[in-house]
Amino acid sequence: MQITKYEHACLVLEKQGQRVVIDPGFYTRPMSDLQGVQAIVITHMHDDHCYEEQLDRILNNNPTAKIYGTDEVCQRLSSYQTIAVHHGDFYTDGNFTLEFFGDIHAEIHRSIPLIQNCGVLVDSELYYPGDSFTTPDQPIKVLACPTSAPWLKISEVMDFVAAVKPRRCFATHNAHLSDVGHDLNNGRVKQVVEAHGGSFEFLKPGDTATI
């Protein structure tokens, strides 16, 4: 499986000519040229993860792609055909398996209502938690780790990585960082990953890794 990191929180996974798109939000470049998309996973309804204009671009070339999202995502996207997902759900879609974890977005501030969030594990190998620190109940080969957001502190990210103990890890959800910020936060994540015997990669938008 190939993983291509797009801007901010968006990932495109490819295997045997088929693709899964995760969280194509408004910080991500227009995605008008993707082919072979079997599924679109939207972890929660915030615009940086769920953006109708991006969905329309993807679906224009892939009209049969299924959209998986929380109940709130499905309500927002009521004019689309969607599949509501919850903690513990498991689907097979094309060449991929999708398993979902968690229920709630990390708290931004006590004055801001909490929303739903479901992390996703693809092919029992790549785990992306969305906007949460939900820890899966199984060993993780590759962790897509959020490194910048209004809802996180780097100390919490480090504790999350220490709990997951991935064999490989790369940074995502990081459009808010400057070059200095990337260096600082990536360094902290790398420290924890390597302390548990794993390796860390910094994928810039457009970079691809293979697992």
From TrEMBL:
InterPro entries: Metallo-B-lactamas (IPR001279), RibonucZ/Hydroxyglut_hydro (IPR036866), UPF0173_UPF0282_UlaG_hydrolase (IPR050114)
Entry keyword Hydrolase: yes
Cited Pfam families: Lactamase_B_3
Residue intervals of the Metallo-beta-lactamase domain: 7-173
Top-rank lineage group of the source organism: Bacteria
Keywords: Hydrolase
Recorded GO MF terms: hydrolase activity
Protein name: Putative Zn-dependent hydrolases of the beta-lactamase fold
Species in which this protein is naturally found: Rhodoluna lacicola
